[in-house]
DNA sequence: ACGTGTATAATTGTATACATCAAAAACAAT
DNA sequence: ATTGTTTTTGATGTATACAATTATACACGT
């Protein structure tokens, strides 16, 4: 069972109103429901979700810290969103950090975690072969979360989980093609083998390349036109 | 004038209660006033600061997102703090990211920013020579913020400012020695020269080394014993 | 003595009320 | 018609009130 690698960020999210509101708004921003510079009014959102202002406010304050929302005192909360160039930056940042994560994981991974990775890749290859594309994003997420866990760095894990979330929507699209999915699985396997063999340098390099190739695939296929609509050159 | 590079993270911090409460608790955690596993009760903190629970709650929710506080639903908020190994991780992460920042800054820096860096280093060298150690942390912060600004990446800037803050207390201690201060200034100058010369690879490498040498200096001088007290091996 | 169960207190979660601020509208003056 | 001022409106900032949950204390039974 790999239910251990639950992808929910905080346990609180499921059980508190604030957590649900936070996730809802966050998803709506990442999924383009709210666009750049949209104003997020506490009362309106509260009504829509059937809650009072309080949990909405708390959620907005958190989103401010994540950089998805800008709060101007006494004015309101405005969507910051993710720009086209932000996606580029995120992938370049991730290339470095996933590399570091793979390096540390090589030195610190536990047998169960390696086991879990093995199982994950096996499953992913199976579903890719069968064309079950809807499963791929989930499995990809899981693979990376196992890696984040295995690096045994609270700091790095926290960071990578955040950045992983940011590009959630785009990842779903990217992985919906068979080509990218199979390539992705191959790269995952490569990283795992390097970790298993204790080759930290190789693992780091492969993890970095994994990010770059994901990004290049995205650009090549014009898969992030979705962000272009609400672009502003300021 | 370099007042442009104001180090406050958000404008809201100064003017809203929540912002002040947030900064206060944050500083208290980073400065060791609250220790690992301390419980942060909304009413108590509110009373201490002379405010109601609302701003305190919002601040705690934000700190949760920063990872400095863990919130257990219906139970309370507990200090997570920064462990000894977290400091290590932060510096290794920063080594990569400051490197990337320097690289991008090399390609995108504006003349005014280069000017500001020049001025900053000049001032820092002056104060270091005069033994004005109290100024060093501030100037160091300023240098890095100029760099963050110059890389023209909202994402990377946001991230680096966060991590820079995390190690604020320890940086103050480290820079209080003349040796480290002068070495630090030399490294800053090196980075600036590389950027000015358009040597991105060199700038990246130097910025990374700057972090590693800062960390090694810290370890060598046992300067982060302060974190050891509340350590737990879990 | 020990564990269990209930009552009480304390704390958090949420909703609402009031205060404050800022943009928008209405109006006056030029 | 345009500008400047006042009024109004609507939103946020903060405080408080109530509900739900959890921790504590104590009595009871074994």
Task: Describe the structure in your own words.
- The structure is a homodimer of 234-residue chains.
- Chain A is elongated, with a radius of gyration of 19 Å.
- In chain A, helix 2 crosses helix 4.
- Chain A is mainly alpha-helical.
- In chain A, a hairpin with a 3-residue loop joins strand 2 and strand 3.
- The first copy, chain A, starts with 11 loop residues before the first helix and ends in a 14-residue tail after the last helix.
- A three-stranded antiparallel β-sheet of chain A has the order 1-3-2.
- Chain A has eleven helices and three strands.
- The longest helix of chain A has 25 residues.
- Helix content of chain A is 70%, strand content 4%.
- The N terminus and C terminus of chain A are likely disordered.
- At the A-B interface, helix 4, helix 5 and helix 8 of A face helix 4, helix 5 and helix 8 of B.
- The structure holds a DNA duplex (30 and 30 nucleotides).
In short:
The structure is a homodimer of 234-residue chains. The first copy, chain A, is mainly alpha-helical. The first copy, chain A, has helices at 12-15, 17-30, 42-49, 53-66, 84-108, 111-130, 133-150, 154-166, 168-174, 178-196, 200-220, and strands at 39-40, 69-72, 76-79.
Write the layout of secondary structure elements.
The structure is a homodimer of 234-residue chains.
Chain A: H1 12-15, H2 17-30, E1 39-40, H3 42-49, H4 53-66, E2 69-72, E3 76-79, H5 84-108, H6 111-130, H7 133-150, H8 154-166, H9 168-174, H10 178-196, H11 200-220
Antiparallel strand pairs in A: 1-3, 2-3
Chain A binds a DNA duplex (30 and 30 nucleotides) through residues 16-18, 41-43, 51-55, 57, 73-77.
């Amino acid at each position: 069972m790999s239910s251990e690698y639950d992808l929910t960020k905080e346990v609180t999210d499921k059980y508190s109103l604030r957590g649900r509101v936070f996730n809802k708004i966050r998803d709506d921003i990442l999924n383009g429901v709210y666009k750049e510079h949209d104003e997020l009014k506490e009362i309106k959102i509260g009504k829509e979700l059937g809650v009072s202002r309080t949990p909405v406010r708390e959620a907005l304050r958190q989103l401010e810290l994540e950089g998805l929302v800008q709060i101007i005192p006494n004015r309101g909360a405005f969507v910051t969103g993710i720009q086209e160039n932000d996606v580029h930056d995120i992938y370049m940042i991730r290339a470095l950090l996933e590399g570091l994560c793979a390096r540390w994981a090589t030195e610190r991974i536990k047998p169960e975690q390696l086991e879990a990775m093995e199982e994950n890749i096996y499953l992913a290859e199976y579903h890719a072969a069968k064309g079950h594309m809807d499963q791929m994003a989930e499995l990809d997420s899981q693979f990376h979360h196992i890696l984040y866990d295995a690096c045994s760095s609270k700091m790095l894990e926290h960071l990578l989980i955040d950045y992983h979330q940011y590009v959630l929507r785009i990842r779903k699209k990217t992985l919906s093609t068979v080509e990218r999915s199979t390539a992705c699985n191959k790269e995952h396997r490569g990283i795992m083998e390097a970790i298993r063999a204790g080759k930290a340098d190789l693992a780091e390099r492969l993890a970095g390349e994994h990010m770059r190739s994901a990004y290049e695939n995205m650009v090549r296929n014009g898969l992030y036109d979705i962000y272009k609509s609400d672009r502003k050159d300021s």
